[in-house]
Amino acid sequence: MNATQILMLAAGLTVAAGAWAGSPAAGEKLVTEKNCAACHQRLIGGDGSKLYLRSDRKVKSLSQLHAQVSFCSSQLKTGWFPEDEEDVVAWLNHRYYQFK
């Protein structure tokens, strides 16, 4: 790959990333459909939301949130596409995290 191709690829990825913000509404629907709360309830009890709200939470940045959603999706074999994971991240960030 030459320098021009690399620059074009990088520019394309930058444009795609900017346009790919995720839909909180779609993310909420995906989380509900896959019953993510059931796993969270087994881990932490209650309705499962304490997983996001606890003071010692592991996710402390938007990139870590992306990684965690991807990990959960892979482990639970959700069948989500990357854009689905982006929707879930958008919902979790909107609902619980508020990362910039």
Short description:
With 100 residues, the protein is mainly alpha-helical.
N to C succession of SSEs: HHHHHH
Helical stretch tally: 6
Helix-and-strand structural type: mainly alpha
**Which percent range fits the helix content?**
over 70%
Q: Which residues sit in consecutive blocks of at least 5 with pLDDT less than 50?
A: 14-18
Shape: globular
Mean pLDDT: 85
**N-C termini distance:** 34 Å
Largest sheet: none
Which percent range describes the beta-strand content? under 5%
Would you report the number of β strands?
0
Rg of Cα set = 16 Å
Description:
The protein has 100 residues and is mainly alpha-helical. It has helices at residues 3-19, 24-33, 36-44, 50-53, 62-75, 82-97. The model is unreliable at 14-18 (pLDDT under 50).
Structural features:
single chain, 100 residues, mainly alpha, 6 helices, 0% strand
Topology:
Elements: H1 3-19, H2 24-33, H3 36-44, H4 50-53, H5 62-75, H6 82-97
